[in-house]
Design a protein that fits this description.
The structure holds two protein chains of two kinds. Chain A is an all-alpha fold. Chain A has one domain: MetI-like fold (Orthogonal Bundle). Chain A has 15 helices and four strands. In chain A, the strands form two sheets. In chain A, strands 1-2 form a two-stranded antiparallel sheet. In chain A, strand 3 (237-238) and strand 4 form a beta hairpin. Chain A is globular, with a radius of gyration of 23 Å. Residues 304-314 and 336-348 of chain A have low confidence and may be disordered. Chain B is mainly α. Chain B has two domains: 2-59; 65-307, MetI-like (MetI-like fold), CATH 1.10.3720. Chain B has a two-stranded antiparallel sheet. In chain B, helix 2 packs across helix 12 (273-307). The longest helix of chain B has 47 residues, at 13-59. Chain B is globular. The two termini of chain B are 38 Å apart. Mean pLDDT of chain B is 85; it is low at 4-10. Classes of the chains: A mainly alpha, B mainly alpha. Chains A and B meet through helix 1, helix 3, helix 4, helix 5 and helix 8 of A and helix 2, helix 4, helix 5, helix 6 and helix 7 of B.
């Protein structure tokens, strides 16, 4: 019996280790291919990240347009999507009567379940023509196809709604009831309670959701590829006038270029390596977003986030490995700003 | 609130009036915001309704028995894609479930908080955040080709399934972990008090008790797999052969419904591609609706059978 116990333990432990092996090999193999751009083909890393002009067939690898495209698409989606998501979450937890709450839950689940390719398809047949029509009738002058950053941002907004909403609902519904009751007992209206009590108390949980939504938006491929027009040499925003504005023309993002260029790339070529470099860049960005969401969740006052609840407090790797590194940086944040950030740690 | 509290110290009759007007103002804004929140929520409901009705209206007339079961040279039928979608999902789940379950059992039942478990958790969270297009390229590198040189499995349903395993392992792991953690400790203690060892406790007490949640997690993951595209385009292959598609050989290449929708748009070699695309999109959404409703029904049913209560998730 004894050996059976021991073998089963080893089997279970190695299954858990499989996840580590997979993650490590993703980083290693994507990374190895990525660095060939700089080691074998001698592309200038600075030029790769800070110049535009993406035409790897002709040896031109400047990915600035793609990186700006990914960042702008993500930011626009979050700017549009986060307020709506928080609104839905507030509706579900604070305003809705019982029947409406029960109705909203499957609605949000269904929105989560709709595949990205369907969103892309709908964007292609509905959003893009609509933008073209609106642009051409309002601005006139020349013909606009409707493909571009605006369509991508709209589609991404809808796609990240369920992500942020689910986490915001989780956060708001697990806030201590006493907070709500105390505020209402003071004579506050519901909106005053929401604005002055619930939103500040749930801010770190909501922010976690927003960061995870950003992670989803920046990694989204298919939906964006349908509507963005994939022009890797045209910036999504223009800075030429006094203020930046969104360009109504086809542009591209990292993920879209990964999708379209990979089909044509043959193995030993600059084209092929440059795609892996893009992939590695995206991998780093999305890992940073995951780390950021963990960081925000671990600093939650009420520990309401679903992830934090699972591990009951900040995860071990965080407080032992990462937090000590960040502590000196945090101390440098000026006091008034630091007070406004939802950074205070729960007393454990 | 603080505004009212500060101003309430005012002694003149103007202060009283002021307070009343502030309260009226607060009530007014409360009503406005309540209205806005109702508006936002109904907007989202309308959006979902619009998406579903639009897709049904656009593609329902394309759907026919032939459309979902037959194949033809022009690829205007979806038979192979329906078959491959389910084939790849089932294959991926068969590979994924044992690993995820064992890993979850280890994390919940065996491991203490150690450097190893924190590493596993860290890897799980990071893997869950990796965009699926990167996993698709990784799958191409590892499963389809031999690190980019020559072929290993080639474009095949097995390579696609293995990539889906990587994509869904962290999801399934955390769902299973949650399910096992929800089992009350008394059951573990009772089992061990009866003289059962760890393995017996896991096999005879924990897994049966957590079974409804485990099944719910599996169906939820399968629903996510139906819609996956980016991870499959460069692993499962972009088309199915007209004659050989109905085989159980995992090494044949085959596209799923989502890949077909993508190739219809990207390559456009099929006649009346828009027509077929609308039908494929409708088929996808019908499948997902059926899956979602089926999930609720199954969860209710299993719960009733096992626990004797009608409690849903």
């Amino acid at each position: 019996m004894r050996w059976r116990e021991r073998t089963s333990r080893i089997v279970f432990a190695s299954c858990a280790g499989l996840v580590v092996v997979i993650m490590a090999s993703i980083i290693i193999f994507v990374g190895l291919n990525a660095f060939q751009t700089f080691t074998v083909y001698h592309a200038n890393p600075f030029a790769f990240y800070f110049t535009s002009g993406w035409s790897p067939d002709n040896g031109q690898v400047g990915s600035l347009v793609l990186i700006v495209g990914s960042v702008v698409a993500t930011l626009l989606a979050v700017l549009l999507g986060a307020p709506i998501s928080v609104g839905i979450a507030l509706f579900v937890t604070e305003v809705a009567p019982r029947w409406a709450r029960q109705f909203m839950q499957p609605v949000i689940e269904l929105l989560t379940g709709i595949p990205s390719i369907i969103y892309g398809f709908l964007g292609l047949v509905i959003v893009v023509p609509l933008i073209a029509k609106a642009y051409n009738s309002f601005m006139g002058g020349y013909f606009n196809t409707g493909f571009g950053m605006v369509a991508a941002a709209i589609v991404l907004t809808v796609m990240i709604l369920p992500t942020i909403t689910t986490i915001a609902i989780d956060t708001l519904s697990t806030l201590p009831v006493g907070l709500r009751e105390a505020s209402l007992a003071l004579g506050a209206t519901r909106w005053q309670t929401i604005r002055r009590t619930l939103l500040p108390a749930g801010s770190s949980g909501i922010l976690t959701g927003v960061v995870l939504g950003m992670g989803r938006a920046i990694g989204e491929t298919l939906a964006v590829s349908y509507v963005i027009g994939s022009n890797a040499n045209s910036f999504p925003i223009k800075l030429t006038s006094a203020y930046p504005y969104v360009n109504f023309a086809p542009t591209s993002t990292i993920t879209v270029q990964l999708l379209f260029d990979f089909a044509e790339a043959r193995n030993p070529s600059l084209n092929y390596s440059a795609i892996w470099t893009l992939a590695f860049t995206l991998l780093v960005i999305s890992s940073l977003l995951v780390a950021a969401s963990r960081w925000i969740a671990s600093r939650s006052v009420y520990n309401t986030n679903a992830n934090a609840r699972r591990t009951n407090g900040p995860p071990g790797w965080w407080s032992r490995v990462v937090a000590p590194q960040l502590a000196p940086l945090l101390e440098r944040i000026p006091a008034p700003l630091a007070e406004r950030l939802p950074l205070r740690r729960a007393d454990s | 609130m603080s505004v009212i509290a500060e101003r309430s110290g005012a002694q003149s009759s103007g202060g009283v009036k002021r307070r009343a007007s502030l309260r009226a103002q607060a009530r007014f804004w409360d009503r406005v915001v309540t209205g806005i929140l109702w508006g936002v929520a109904s907007g989202v409901v309308l959006l979902l309704a619009f998406i579903i009705i639009y897709l049904l209206a656009k593609g329902l007339n394309v759907l026919s028995w032939n459309f979902i079961t037959q194949a033809n040279v022009l690829a205007t039928y979806d038979g192979p894609e329906v078959f491959n979608t389910f084939y790849i999902i089932i294959l991926a789940l068969l590979i994924c479930i044992p690993f995820a379950l064992c890993a979850a059992i280890y994390l919940v039942e065996y491991a203490r908080q150690s450097r190893y478990t924190t590493l596993v958790r860290f890897a799980t969270e990071t893997l869950a955040g990796v965009p699926s297009i990167i996993l698709g390229l990784f799958g191409f590198l590892i499963f389809v080709t031999n690190f980019g040189q020559g072929t290993r499995l080639g474009y095949s349903r097995l390579a696609g399934a293995l990539t889906l395993v990587i994509l869904n392992l962290p999801v399934l792991l955390s769902v299973f972990e949650d399910a096992l953690r929800k089992v009350p400790n008394e059951l573990r203690e009772a089992s061990e008090a009866l003289g059962a060892n760890k393995l017996q406790t896991v096999g005879r007490v924990l897994i049966p008790t957590a079974f409804p949640s485990l099944i719910t997690g599996v169906i939820l993951t399968a629903g996510k797999m139906i819609g996956e595209t980016a991870a499959l385009i460069y692993t499962a292959g972009g088309s199915s052969s007209v004659n050989g598609w109905f085989s159980l050989n995992p090494l044949t290449s085959g596209d799923t419904l989502t890949i077909k929708l993508y190739t219809l748009q990207a390559e456009g070699i099929t006649p009346n591609a828009a027509h077929v695309a609308a039908g494929t999109a409708t088929l996808l959404i019908v499948l997902l609706l059926a899956f979602n409703l089926g999930l609720r029904f199954a969860a209710n049913y299993i719960n009733k059978r096992i626990t004797g209560t009608g409690h849903t998730r």
